[in-house]
Design goal:
- The protein has 84 residues and is an alpha+beta fold.
- Helices cover 46% and strands 19% of the residues.
- It has a three-stranded antiparallel β-sheet.
- Helix 2 runs antiparallel to helix 3.
Amino acid sequence: METHEVILEIPLDCHVKQIERTLQVSVILRDGAVKLVGSKSAVEQAKNVFSELLTLSERGNTITEQNVDYVLALSKEHSDVSLA
């Protein structure tokens, strides 16, 4: 299986394991960055999920388990992921 990776500069919290399990990606923390490893589609989904959660956080919102569940559900349905 070919793996793909991307590095994102985002803050992390306790929801990383949930994202890893749901999207079947590995999340590696390195020097304040997040490295995503997995299939191309899984990495893209994870990147979108983290980006959406980052946007929510930058707006001053606390990331809750409900937010993560919602964004993950949207990503699994291949819907546009957005809480905006």
